[in-house]
Amino acid sequence: MVDRKNPVNTPILTILALCAFAANSVLCRLALGQEAIDAASFTIVRMISGVLILFLIVALQGKRTFKGTAGSWQSGFMLFLYALTFSFAYISLDTGTGALILFGSVQITMILVSIVSGNRLYPTEWLGVLIAFIGFVYLVLPGVSAPPMAGFLLMTSAGIAWGIYTLRGRESINPLMDTAYNFAYAIPLVIVLFLVTFDTAELTPKGVALSALSGGLASGVGYTIWYAALRGLTSTQAAVVQLSVPVIAAFGGIVIVSEPLTARLAIATLFILGGILVVILSRHPIQSAN
Known about the structure:
Mean pLDDT: 87
Radius of gyration: 19 Å
Distance between the termini: 6 Å
Largest sheet: none
Helix content: over 70%
Number of domains: 1
Number of strands: 0
Strand content: under 5%
Shape: globular
Low-confidence stretches: 1-5, 286-290
Number of helices: 11
């Protein structure tokens, strides 16, 4: 529910959360693009800083109950898979392109799971799926500005993993607590990654700092702000506003990472996000959260 005493809370929190999500892409690309850290080490530092900040926030909020279950090994695995493929994808992808592929893959994964589960799509929803698919095809068509196929496949994998992770968490009663524990469940895999990549790790103070900001601030604090914002948003509004993240990330890539805005990315963004928006609004028109 929206706080009626302070109705500006929801839009402010929503904007902050969306900027935090976009910041993950900017920080990762900034770190890897300048070779300040390797992709595996970025993932390791991000996950460790994320779990530390999340448990600190949970402790400060006084949510210390251990009744029932919090998080799961399966969700922890999906979280780790997302973080790992996300990092390696940004070795070759620009900030905006990576964010577009990620969030497009997340939404399409959730739509496809809905179809497989037996939910029928309206004709307009099928049209939206087709439009989004055309956008993906156009994005990867051979050409000077096409993203590398390896990066595209890695980021698509990250989007699929995050989509499954999101679906698994839909019924969560305490999403912040569950997220903290999911990060914790992923730590054994982080340790394995550390042991496997220890000899090839490339670390600089700047790279570690950017990774820690991604995990602690953009992820840990960002998720906390997002869950607070969700109290004032309908599920449809939440899905729609997230479509702005690739746009914010692309703008951040232009301003902070000095990346160019290509016509291919702009057109693909219109098709992919526009198609997904058609799907979302076809079945669930935006309603007031009041």
